[in-house]
Amino acid sequence: MKGRHIISDILNTIKRKEKETATPLNKKVKTEHKAKKVPSLSTIASEIAKTMSLTHHKSLAYKYLIHDDFRMIIGLCVEPDRFTSAEFYVYYFYQALYVPTHFINFALGDRIDEWEKKDLSLALPVIKNCYEQLPCDSIATILDKVNKHELLYFGSMINKFEFFALSYLVMEKYDEARDYLDQIVALESGDNWDWMIPIIERAKTLIQRKL
After folding, report:
1. CB neighbours (10 Å) of residue 91?
2. Which of 2, 8, 180, 189 has its CB surrounded by the most CB atoms within 10 Å?
3. Is the C-alpha dihedral spanning 167, 171, 172, 174 positive or negative?
4. Is 173 helix (H, G, I), strand (E, B) or coil?
5. Element spanning 75, H or E
């Protein structure tokens, strides 16, 4: 009987030691897991917004350019890498809110660069430097830069025409606006123009108002 008690004591001691060593091990695993946590796209955009005194919303950092009651966004958009969740892209873009659309449009803008999420502190100065070199004082300045090809418009021809037409209307430059509206309507006779119908109809409506 005595021998059985000794064996039982030994087994209990082993189990107790296993429990004692298991707790620090679990804590270590949790600590390592926490250390590997990377910021979300919204968090990255928030840090960008703070660094450049911009407004933050989800994956965007932006500000408005305002002319009378019309607004254009100059923004920075954080996008995920297609192949790995550890990396992200940042795009700068301009988007006229007086041009009808249902999505963020990068036609007037470009990608700045790509980074690993863990390197956000290295990315921020680069993003800030790029942003500070962008023209962002007025809608008129943006139009001038696009006309001089200092800002490139990557969208379709008809979208570019509508951007110019409506922007010139905002600036009350009706002759310039009418020229682009006429170019939009002229595309009606071309091939594969079904998707252009809403833009063409908008141009016709504006022309009928005797611009």
Report:
1. 16
2. 180
3. negative
4. coil
5. strand 70-80
Cα 42 to its chain centre, rounded Å, is 10
pLDDT beneath 70: ranges in the chain: 1-36, 192, 210-211
Q: Quote the CA–CA distance of 142 and 122 in Å, as a whole number.
A: 29
Q: What is the pTM of this model?
A: 0.78
Residues 62 and 73: beta-carbon distance below 8 Å: yes
Please give the pLDDT value at position 16: 64
pLDDT of residue 194: 81
Q: What is the pLDDT of residue 2?
A: 47
What distance in Å separates the CA atoms of residue 30 and residue 64, rounded to the nearest whole number? 43
Instruction: Look at residue 3 in the predicted model and tell me its pLDDT.
Output: 46
Whether residue 102 contacts residue 129, with contact meaning beta carbons closer than 8 Å, is answered with no
pLDDT digits (tens, 9 = 90+) for 74-91: 999 999 998 999 999 999
CA distance 93 to 77: 8
Torsion (CA) 131, 132, 137, 139 in degrees, nearest 10? -30
Q: Strand, helix or coil at 187?
A: helix
Q: Where are the domains of the chain?
A: 41-140, 157-208
Residue with the two structure tokens 């979208």 = 159
Cα 178 to Cα 82: distance, rounded to the nearest angstrom: 42
